[in-house]
Design brief:
The protein is an alpha+beta fold. The chain contains five helices and nine strands. α1 runs antiparallel to α2. It is globular and about 55 Å long.
Length: 236
């Protein structure tokens, strides 16, 4: 669960990049109208016994897209990993940007999270390649993403573990948040490792850009082999 095979560009305008762990599928947060219409057409073509369930999933996806766009979510991925019973553990990974309106991002973040930081407060500072991040964990009750139980109007309730790493970014006067949510509360330690692993891959260096070391070593009248600059990204 801790491998990072590829990179993901935050959309629509990349200001940072991050690694996507194994077992996670990136969602398209900007689907075209034609793509949505095609999915709706496919749902309508399902057999009757599958159509209602597929329609619920489609409506959930549409609702989640609307919510994520309103919250400036830059990326969202669904995780699915085998469990011990032949099923799957599910999780949702989201990466967002919170603007601070010109204020110092660390001051805004600490004001949002509370006065103190430390295990007693539930907020723990962690050193990352891009600076200091702040880890917050909680368990909360939330509506389950399924149809309401038979004979009830309200959806079923479930408990989820939610972990967040908030990273203040002075250069853009913003706060990057990496959040992981899963109903597998008993696996919180494992998912905490995944969350911190993703946070450690956050970078402001485009992984697709030429390596400055290679540029420095390239022959030419303007080469500067003595600069010693190492701007390589953590993606290799």
């Amino acid at each position: 669960m801790n491998g990072f095979p590829g990179t993901v560009e935050a959309e629509p305008k990349p200001e940072f990049w991050y690694g996507l762990p194994y077992g996670y599928l990136q969602l398209d947060l900007q689907p075209s109208p034609e793509g949505i219409q095609e999915v709706a057409r496919q749902v309508n073509a399902f057999p009757d016994d599958l159509r209602d369930r597929a329609d619920q999933v489609f409506r959930l996806y549409a609702g989640v897209l609307t919510m994520l766009r309103s919250q400036e979510v830059m990326g969202c991925a669904l995780g699915m990993h085998p469990d011990e019973h032949g099923g799957a553990n599910l999780s949702v990974l989201t990466v967002s940007t919170v603007r601070t309106g010109g204020a110092h991002p660390e001051a805004v973040l600490l004001q949002m999270l509370g006065d103190g930081t430390g295990p007693a407060d539930g907020i723990v500072p962690v050193e990352l390649p891009v600076g200091t991040g702040y880890v917050l964990e909680t368990e909360r009750t939330t509506p389950a993403p399924t149809a309401p139980p038979e004979g009830q109007d309200e959806p079923a309730q479930g408990t989820v573990w939610q972990g967040t790493v908030a990273i203040p970014v002075l250069r853009t006067l913003s706060i990057i948040t990496v959040q992981l949510v899963t109903p597998a509360v008993e696996l919180a330690d494992d998912y905490r490792g995944v969350l911190l692993g993703v946070a450690r891959t956050v970078t402001f260096d485009d992984p697709a850009a030429p390596d400055p070391v290679d540029v420095d070593n390239a022959p030419g009248p303007f080469s500067d082999s003595g600069s010693g600059t190492d701007g390589r990204s953590p993606f290799g």
